[in-house]
Amino acid sequence: MGASIVGTPALLGGEPAHRGPWPAWPVHDEREREAVLGVLESGKWWYGERVREFEERFAAFQDARFGIACTNGTAALELALIGAGIGAGMEAIVPPYTFVATATAVLKANAVPVFVDIELDTLNIDAGQIEAAVTDKTAAVMPVHFGGLPADMDRIGELARRRQLRVVEDSAHGWGTKWRGKGAGALGDAGGFSFQLSKNITAGEGGMVLTDNPELADTIRSLSNVGRGKDRPWYEHYLTGGNYRMTEFQGALLLAQLTRLPEQTALRAKNAAVLNAGLAGIEGLHPLREDPRANPRSYHLYGFRIVEAEFGLSRERFVEALRAEGVPCGPGYPHPLYRNPLFQRKGTGPTYCPVSCPYYGREMDYTRVVCPNAERACREVVWLSQTMLLAGEEDMEAIVCAVRRIRENASRLS
Question: Does the annotation mark 344 as catalytic?
């Protein structure tokens, strides 16, 4: 599976730069098998000691005091926001280049998402643009640590303290990442994680909220457990909660997955460094910027931009050519979140709440929102999955060879 010399692109009849399979996902062995069988044979399948142990271990792994497991990453964000007091008539600042759950979690909290543009070279929210979007309705900032690289938490934290805003981190890509020595998801008031099948640690589904605040932890746990009170009678309910509990099977699987996460995180980082070095200097290809304050960092995605006017090919044609070379890749999000039909629709009344909610009392017209860097990212960014970064160094060299081959033959491929 080693890299071949730069030559004829596969789309034009040449041999693919990479042959053979990429690493399978999810990774599992006897650890997961024994964990699941242990739960099965115990007869204790429901929200018990395995879930509690995983909460404690994952919180410690990310340098947080408290962890609250839940059904999925979307629920984690909703619980974190509602638990932090975000609600009707409030605004939360979010980036537009992220999975839809970042913004819909705000809507589920009956608050209104306000989109602030991203940095083109990190794909994270531009901390320098946040303050201009703050109004008397702003209650929270939701940075997304995209691809595992934290947003600029120094600037976001300083702004939040000065303007008295909550910080709820979307850490769905942040397992194992630290910022100045403290884990992602434990840098603000609360952080939400996902353990969905594609994620770097997975039980098929699952989520986690982290926080250092004991009162907030108790509130979030109550919300996740049908509003029950801590150490109170079973049929006493204090909050409008829901059933967001994780099963023992998920907790056991995730405990096993956590044992190999440090090694996998280091391997992904090592292979990302090979790609960074090999892809540097290719005209029209712009790697994403690293940040020394993020060390270590996870890689849920490895991304770069293809600028058509410089590279000589459209991003779509580049993706087609790279796939032909045996390198699976994707173009990423097709449009910023605010261009989804959910946000483009307009109207009044309960159907359009919380944007039309009288508690909000303002007009929010997402059809008029334009974030230039997010728009450009949706035209230019290419993603490689985290599973590819578990391959060998020779596979990374094959990716570099494939990209250089495509660039050198861009005029023939266009």
Answer: no
